[in-house]
Every structure is written in C-alpha cells, then in structure tokens.
Amino acid sequence: MENKEIDRKMNELWKKAAGSDYAPQSSAAPSHLTESGLETVQFLRNNFSKAESDWKRLLETKDTTIRELSAQVDEVRAHLSELKQHYQEARERLINEELSTALNLEDSRKLLDAQKKNHAREITLLKDILERTKLELQNLSGQFEALKAERDSWQRKFSDSAVTEGDLKDSSARLGAQLAEAKEAVEGTLSELLAERKNRRDAEGRIQESGKKNSELQDRLADMKANWDAERKEWRELWDRERSVWETHRAEFAVWEERLRSERQAWMAKLKDEEAKGMEYASGLANVLKESSQWSEKVTQILKLYALKGVQLPAVFVSPDNSVMKTRRTVSRMAALALAGLMFLGGFAWWLYDFRSKAHFTLLSQYSLESSNAAGLAVSKDGLWLADWEKGLVLKDAKDLSTLRILNGSGAEPFRPAAVSAYDGGAWVLDMAQLRFLKKDLKTGGMLETVKTPGPAPQGAAWDGYNLWSFDAATGLLYKYGLDPKAGVTASFELPGVKNLVSMQWVKGELWTLDAKNILRRYVLKNGLFTTVSSQVFKSPALAFWAEDGRFWTLETNRNRNGLEIKKYAVKTY
User: Fold this and answer.
1) Same domain, 450 and 510
2) Which of 25, 115, 113, 13 lies closest to 57 in space, CA to CA?
3) Are residues 35 and 184 in the same domain?
4) Of 92-101, 536-545, 551-560, which one has max mean pLDDT?
5) Residues 322 and 446 reside in one and the same domain
6) What's the Cα-to-Cα distance from 515 to each of 347, 481, 518, 531, rounded to whole Å?
7) 158-183 as b/e, with b when 16 or more CB fall inside 10 Å?
8) What are the residue ranges of helices labelled H in 445-569?
9) CB-neighbour burial class of residue 115 (10 A; exposed 0-12, middle 13-18, buried 19+)
10) Model's pTM, two decimal places?
11) Same domain? 401 vs 526
C-alpha cells in the first residue's frame, strides 16, 4: 500500500473516531440503561469495532510495508556483496597485471620509469577510491543494521499495541485515554515512517551513486588496460623496427667498410704493379738505348776505318741477295703460321676447359608467388621451403606450390627468416630479428635447437648433413659449426672473390655460392682451403637458389608482375 493511501485511511479513521460523517446503527437497549446511556454505549461500541478493524488493516499494511522494505534491504545487501566481490577481483587483476608488467618489461625499465611513476600514482588513486568505497559500504551496512533494529523495535511496538487492543476489549471505559495514546502512537508512527522513507531514499541515492562510481571505475580500468596494452604493443613494434634498422645499418656499414678496404687494397696493388711495370719499361728502354748507342758507335768506327783505307764494303752489307730475302720470308711465314696454330689450339683448349668447368642450365618451368617478401629457398622430400619475412617459414607443395604448413617463431618474439637450408624432417633457418639459427621440426613445428650467429651481419645458411655453415658480410669469412652447434664455431675460412653473399648450399661435396653481383661460384675444400672450381654469371638475377640431382631451383623477381617467381632449371655439370 502506498503512503498516500495510508494517509487517506488514517484521515478516515480519525473522522470516524471524532464522530463526523458517522451514522450509528440501532440496537436493542437493555432495560436497566437509560436511552442516552444506550446510545453512548452503542456509539462507543460501533466506533471501537470500526476503529479496531481499521487498526488491524493498518497493522497488516504496516507488516506488508516492512516485509517489502526487508526484501529491498536484502537486495541492497546482495548488491553490496557483489560490489565487494567486483572490487576484490579488480584489485587482484590490478596486482596480477602489475606483477606481469614488472616481469615482462624488465629490459625496458629505464625507458619507462616516468610512465611507471604515473601508473603508480593512478594505482594509488584507485586504491584510495576503493578504500573510500569500502568505508561507504561499511557505513551502509551499519545503516542497514540500524534499520533492522528499528524494524525489530517496531515489531515489539506492534506486539505491545496488540496487548493494548486486548486491554481495550476488557475495559471499554478507558477507550478515550487509549484512543489518545493510539493517536500519539500513530503520529509517532507517521513521523517514523516519513523518516524511514527519507532514509530509504537517501540509501537508494547513495547506492545509485556508488553504482555509478563502480561503473566509472570499471570503465576507467578497462581504458587503462587497453591503453597499456596498446602502448606496450607500440613499444615492442618500435623496438623491433629500431633493432632491425640498426642491424641492417650495421651490416651495410660492415659491407661498405669491407668493400672500401678491398677497393683500396686493389687500387694500391694496381698502383704498385703499374709502378713496377713503368720501372721495368724504363730500365729496358735505357738498356736498349745504351746498346743501340754502343752499336752505332762501333758501326761508325768501322765505316771510318774502311773510308780512311779506301776499302770497298761487301755486297752483303750493301744490298742482300734475292734468294736470301726469299728464304727469310718463307721462314717468317712458317713461324707466323705455327704461332697462329698454337694460339688457336690454346684458345680452343681454354674454351673447352671453361665449358666443361661451368654448369649449364635449361629452363623447365616457372611459377608465380603471391608473397613478395620471400628471401630464402630450399627443397627436400617434404616439399619446397620458403623463408618469408612476414609470414615465417612456409612449406609448399613442390608440384603446384600450394601451402602445406606455416611454422612461426617461439612465443611472442619477432621472427624474420632470411635464409633456409632443408633436411629430411625439418630445416635450419636464419632469424635476422634475433641474429640466430633455428632448427625447426616439421612434425611438431617446434624449435629443436637455437644457435647465435658468429658475426653481426650473417648471410646464408648451409647444412652439409653433419655441420652447419654460415657466412658473415662484416668479416667476409665462412664459419663452420661443430657437430653440436651449441658448442660454437670450430673453424673459419676465406672464400676467394666473395665479399657479400646472397645464398649458398653444399652439393655433392662442393660449396655453391651466389653473391650480390649474381655470380655463381663452385668451391671445393682441400687441405683446409677453398679452391675455386668454376665462376660464371647467372643469366637472370636471383634472390636464392637450391640445387639437387639434375635440378636447379631459383627465387627470382617477376619483371612483368613486379612480384616473385620460382623457376626450375635442368642443370648439367662435367
């Protein structure tokens, strides 16, 4: 029942108690009472019965209202417990996030000190807000206990009023005094009801305000978490970009330094050779001039001697015979023919040697690739492996180049494969993001071994069945790992003519290399040194290659579509 309805019922009750708008019923009067006494008794009795029925309804209405208030208080208490649980969970999440952040961002602590201080201030503010909210919840619980105590007191009062109603039935003479007390009790009840209604409104307002604060706090926590995750992702991407750029610049500087050093050495050697040739030429010219001057002096003395004595010179010195001239010409022609024959035979022999020492290729097929970020190529029984800078290590079908599987790095670390060397059941990969070699297993997709690169600018990866080989552009050396690659490098070698490598592979005991100038070289290892078997310019620029029995695969740039393509050649060597 609403408060307005209660007020209206109470007003009607007071009107009936005061006698206004009331018509008494006729009843049989006893013989010993006067007519006025009977009317008074009948009037009091009717008023009492109606007042009693109205009072009972009012008490029932009060009980209903109290039950509704108790149910609302229980709901408020349940909501407060849920709020406590949410606050506890939010606090635990904040603590867990702080711990994980402290563990994962240990390396970037110096860069994020200022941000950590700001986050610490915000966390302290949030803790203060949570403590204030807990205090408000405690105050609300205390108010709830006070309301419960008031409800109990009202129940006792209602029991007392029931006793009073029994006393009124027993003694009708004290009706006026009891009605006055009932009036005072009703007035107190109304004032207490109004106060209780005001307290309930205040409590509802505080609950709504705390709910708004809770929602605002949750939204703020969600925004902070999203901003923190985005910022952490941006820092990780920035770190990856800076590190890759730094490694690229370092490799380029090393290559430039080595190239300048080699050019300077070649220039100095050329200057020394030219100087030596000039000195030899000058000394030879001086000797020729000296001999010619001596010979001319001797001839002049002989001529003077013959002139003074009047001797005639022989005909041989004056005009040679025709037969002698013919003989000289015949001998000169035969010598020229013999020299030409020797030169022809030498040129043919050199051409035959060069032809048999080089590898000869015939194009069989070519396939276009969707990705334009591939950098390494390898072929095994499992399929065709591609080292893709963005996707990772991709295994494709060697027949139609359909993707069979993609192997990524480990965890959330960046993975940038630049070269690959395959074996049955997996492959060795050069990861430029972490400057390491990874041994990937095809069955599980996991990482079997990890090895750090020997230098700052690694290029290429080659597996000969027993050992792992790598080239470094900064030092210009070829490195050989032991049977256990984790033990480190066991030897280093120089490759004649190679300063910047694109791809390399072991083929039947020979090391095949392709450098930045698109020159394909073959080496053989003898007595701890690499000797050049052949050197030739490959007919089309390639980014990587892989050789097997009679087949040669290349990763090249598609000039028509501005992408990449894979070409398959038939290769023949002698």
Assistant:
1) yes
2) 13
3) yes
4) 536-545
5) no
6) 28, 22, 5, 16
7) eeebeeebeebeeeeeebeebbeebe
8) none
9) middle
10) 0.45
11) yes
